[in-house]
Amino acid sequence: MMLTIEAISTPALTPATDLGYLLHKNPAGVQRFEMSFGVAHVFYPVAQAERCRVCVLVEVDPVGLVRGRGDWSLDQYVNDRPYAASSLLSVAMNTLFSTAMNGRSKERPQLVAEPLPLRASVAVVPMQGEAFVRRLFEPLGYAVGIDRPPLDASLDWGPAPTGVLTLEHTLPVKDLLRHLYVLMPVLDNDKHYWVGKDEVDKLLARAADWLPTHPEKETIAARYLKNQRRLTREALGRLMPDEVGDAEETERLRDAEEAAIEKPLSLNSQRIGAVMAAIKASNAASVLDLGCGEGNLLRELVKEKQFSRIVGVDVAIRALERASERLRLDRLGDAQRTRIELMHGSLMYRDQRLVGFDAAACVEVIEHLDEPRLRAFERAVFEFARPGAVVITTPNAEYNSVWETLPAGRYRHRDHRFEWTRAQFRAWAQRVAGEFGYAVRFLPVGPVDESLGSPTQMGIFER
Ligand code: SAH
Q1: Residue 291 C-alpha to ligand 1 middle, in angstroms?
Q2: Domain-embedded: residue 252
Q3: Which residues line ligand 1 (CB under 6 A)?
Q4: What is the domain range of residue 302?
């Protein structure tokens, strides 16, 4: 990841290379700093009287980052850590620029508080939504530029999940550094070191003069402090001592914290939670997971004593193998082994093995079936297997416009054959329920948008 800051000469900043005095980094050479997670380099590709540009290149060793932590998973080795700006950039800034951020310059003290025309760029930042990036920086007065090249120009995959952020503003260097220091981990929302009480102190030291008036202050504090409610409340309380007694404000803080927490709580786990609740409520003892994939739902089902027989079905052998590994089926004792079973099969065909269950879940599967063949699915499930209850989830196409990363008219998943609006799903579900003697009701899953509904829609069919 790379941070670039460029200053152009003004009457106060003459020559522009005086930027080096503000940063306490000499423009003449390349400097290298060892970090616990890699190396940071500071160098000046441009150092002239009129223009001065400093680069901070942070090289992260993603393997070194997890070494000795014991928990192993592939995504700790294959991830965006080396190139996407994150809390690690802030850690590096703390080492490189703490004097500058504290507003001290031995050689040019008069420049510390001087607003200077600055341009910063960060390559690259995670883009959960461009609007969110703007909401963080624009209230601070920055002209925000976001450059999101396509993920692969030769393929129709849409824009990359990261982009180059440029910020332009006339302000003291220390302010620019402090803003970046606090907001990079907020954009990343995934701090890679322990967040303790001293993080509250660091946040206050770097943000006490600008955060209290920032419209996103609650989200910023919550995400900076890794969504730890107690720390967030403490930080906001110390930032705005007059306001904490105010009940309405406290309520607002809670909502914002919750919003900040729910964002990273993936839709997937919300969906599994909603389906689990519906199945448990049906009082089922035997359950089918139709199109179980790699076993996300099965893993939750096995935890519940209520279920004495659990069967996952999928057409993809590879998915079943993964499910078997994740559930450690080969290591189960005899009692457990009769309780859970994986079956290879297609939901398009009548299958005697699937008859006689109390409930069935079919989570994010129907949209993978060719629409003309849905009829075969309906008959195989509702007419032939005929579980007591059937819980079906599918994307709500209307909600897609909320996700800025999803180009208009594009499906969420490349294998989706269709994505239905709420009206389309209801019409289909009501017709199926009526035809096969079920009653159906609908519940939203995920955050509900007033006009667009929720990202996932769920239909609960009961005989
Ligand atoms: N329910 C899982 C997986 C959803 S992905 C989860 O929520 O994580 C859709 C799954 O449906 C895939 O695993 C795919 O292999 C399976 N699938 C697609 N067509 C199928 C069919 N005709 N019969 C059975 N499974 C099918």
Answers
A1: 4
A2: no
A3: 291-293, 296, 314-316, 319, 346-348, 363-365, 368-369
A4: 265-462
